[in-house]
Amino acid sequence: MGPFSNLELVTDIWFVVKIMFLIGMGLYLIFAFVIIRQTHHMTNTLQVGFETPIRLFAWLHLFAAIGLLLFAIFVL
Predict the structure, then answer these.
(1) What is the pTM of this model?
(2) Phi and psi angles of residue 27, each rounded to the nearest 5 degrees, phi first
(3) DSSP, residue by residue, 9-74
């Protein structure tokens, strides 16, 4: 067989998949920060009476994105 065994090739492919997954999760975390910024601007511009739940959901989304990225880094 050649210089690479089948197991090494599969391991290398999964390593690349994991790196791409972590890059995607990092981009999603940036998106979550953008959502926080946009909800801040929206709630300052429009006063409709339910700003607190909107801000709460935006912050929960950010914390979930951080938690998922940390999970992906340490578990995958």
Answers:
(1) 0.79
(2) -65, -35
(3) HHHHHHHHHHHHHHHHHHHHHHHHHHHHHHHHHHHHH---S-HHHHHHHHHHHHHHHHHHHHHHHH
